[in-house]
Write a structure and sequence with these properties.
With about 150 residues, the protein is of the alpha/beta class. The protein has a single domain, classed as Rossmann fold. Helices cover about 40% and strands about 15% of the residues. The protein has helices at about 15-30, 40-50, 75-85, 100-110, 125-140, and strands at about 5, 10-15, 35-40, 65, 90-95, 115-120, 145. The strands form two sheets. Strands 3-2-4-5-6 form a five-stranded parallel sheet. A two-stranded parallel ribbon has the order 1-7. α1 packs across α5 (about 125-140). The relative contact order is 0.20.
Length: about 150
């Protein structure tokens, strides 16, 4: 990794503890060594991104993996708030949700999502989705990398 490269910070916004654990396991199995930060509500996600309150010293995320159905502020509203603020419009936002409804995918796209992934039901399929996200992000932005550990 050159001096200009840095690992991307990923913020997972997910209120289900089992889904968070599955995501952590998928990142580990995909051998991605990027920082994965987790918050459990929409309001906490906004505080993390804007570095407010207990998240005042949080790193600026380069990518959000955003659940659609969240307490307090839902994923689409978070996405709209981010896209309205030019200071955050370079953050990649991928909706990672259990919803297979076309209207949700269209709403995400209309709000400015960079991707929409229906939550896989197996660890293997989630690992595949994580690896696809790695390729998406590497192609999306130069100078930032996903770190892959080699066993």
């Amino acid at each position: 990794m050159s001096a200009c490269d840095r690992l991307i910070d990923i913020l997972l916004v997910e209120d289900s503890a089992s889904d968070v654990e599955l995501a952590r396991c998928a990142f580990e199995q995909a051998r991605l060594g990027n920082p994965l930060h987790v918050v459990g509500s929409g309001a906490e996600a906004i505080d993390f991104i804007r570095r407010r309150g207990v998240h005042a010293n949080a790193p600026r995320p380069d990518m959000l993996l955003l659940d659609l159905n969240l307490p307090e502020i839902d994923g689409i509203e978070i996405l709209r708030l981010l896209r309205q603020d030019r200071a955050h419009d370079d953050i990649s936002v991928i909706l990672l949700t259990g919803s297979q409804m076309e209207r949700d995918a269209v709403a995400a796209s209309d709000a400015g999502a960079d991707g929409y992934i229906v939550k896989p039901l197996t660890l293997a399929s989630l690992i595949g989705a994580v690896q696809a996200l790695a390729q998406f992000r590497i192609g999306f932005m130069t100078g930032l990398t996903l770190k892959k550990h080699i066993a």
